[in-house]
Amino acid sequence: MDKSTATKTVRILIADDHTIFRDGLRRLLESEPEFDVIGEAADGGEAVQQARRLGPDVLLLDLAMPRVPGLDALRELTTDDSSTKIIILTAAIEKAQIVQALQAGAKGIILKESATQLLLKGIRSVMAGQYWVGRESVNDIVEYLKSTAAGAQADSQAKNFGLTKREMEILGTIVAGFTNKEIAKKFNLSEDTVKHHLTNIFDKVGVSSRLELALFAINQRLAEPVS
Prior knowledge:
InterPro entries: CheY-like_superfamily, NreC/VraR/RcsB-like_REC, Sig_transdc_resp-reg_C-effctor, Sig_transdc_resp-reg_receiver, Tscrpt_reg_LuxR_C, WalR-like. The chain is an alpha/beta fold. The protein is 50% helix and 13% strand.
């Protein structure tokens, strides 16, 4: 199918300092009818300039780049009033960097070693309004959050999306990786009541899964400390 006949063409900007990698990724993406690579950047500063000039739907952003590191470019771009969805595409990333990237506004984290179909699925998921974290990274995030949740501080209490005090407490336990049974025990509630609270939270913040909710809470700095 020709790109011109596609229902929705996803315009993609690639930011990576390795020319061979950019060329290969461009060919891979443009073999898919709905993807159109509209530009490339070789460093973080150029990525910011190109993203502002071209307004892509998706920016695939490497972390380790010269001049302006990927995380700095991410933070700079997410202060703009832009609809560009930024996906970190990197060779390696620490658990703390995953959390920092999500807090800074990244919608996805994909390792360069990922299978092609996971990369494509990740882009499509982010375009559908979901967060995407490579399957192997999900458990790492949960474990990292469990280890740091006790010392974490919620940076923004004003913007709580209409959540009640109890819903905020439950949100904190979701981020820390609690099961419904563990949440019920912690707050002396029935599991049905916990499910009811979660349904309300999903509706208020506009997500459809526990993982999306946890990532949303990280991104918006909503998570309360739990133990």
